[in-house]
Amino acid sequence: MLGLMQDRPLLISQLITHAAINHSDREIVTVTVAEGVHRYDYAACERRSRQLAKALIGRGIRLGDRVATLAWNGYRHLEVWFGAAGMGAVAHTVNPRLFDDQITYIINHAEDRLVFADLTFVPLLERLADKLSSVEAFVILCDDAHLPETGLRGAQSYEAFLDEADDDFDWPEFDENTAAGLCYTSGTTGNPKGVLYSNRSSVLHAYGTALVDVLGMGERDTIMPVVPMFHANAWGIPHAAPLVGSKLVLPGADLDGPSLQSLIEREGVTLSAAVPTVWLGLLSYLEQAGKRVDSLKRVVIGGSAAPRSMIERFETKYDVRVKHAWGMTEMNPLGTVNTPKAKHSELPLEQRIDIKCKQGRPVFGVEMKITDDDGNELARDGKAFGHLKVRGPWVVKNYFKHEDEPLLDEGGWFDTGDVATIDPDGYMQITDRSKDVIKSGGEWISSIDLENAAMGHPKVAEAAVIGVPHPKWDERPLLIVVPVKGEAVSKAELLDYLKGQVAKWWLPDDVVFVDQLPHTATGKLMKTALREAYKDYKLPTARDPVS
Ligand code: ADP
Question: Where do the domains of the chain lie, and which CATH numbers do they carry?
Answer without folding.
Answer: 1-199 (3.40.50.12780), 436-542 (3.30.300.30)
